[in-house]
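Readers outside the structure-tokenisation community will struggle with the description of the input data as it stands. I therefore recommend that a typical entry be quoted early in the introduction. An entry of this sort, consisting of the sequence and the corresponding backbone structure tokens, reads as follows:
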Amino acid sequence: MSLSLRFSITFSALAAAMLSVATASAQSSLPKYDLATETKMKGTIQELKLPEKGAAKEAARLTLKSGDTTIDVYLCPKSFLDDMGSNLAKGDEVNLTGSKVKQDGSDLILAREVSKGSDTLVLRDDKGKPVWDWGHK
């Protein structure tokens, strides 16, 4: 095998490995829940963002309008919403408890509880640990 062919193969393998690591770290780059920044807010769901079919482990998010503020809210994997029988929808008035964090310079809420009427969807325990992980530890 020529030197240039070996270099080309090695470079291609290295580039693929770096891309794989970058993709994995981007998927796990969600900030950690911080009890010190926990807040409560009330607002209207402007948009419910569910991942495409077949991506049930991807995050479900919503955009919440509270007064003059609109903020992105990270909920949980879509599969967990489905398991809990969630019926959140655009236009719903909700109460939210969550940690206000920064991601890529923008404010984001990591939701711990979302209440609609008398129903409360618990997404994290009182320490901020995701409840959808309980069955996998």
Remarks:
- The two ends are 48 Å apart (CA to CA).
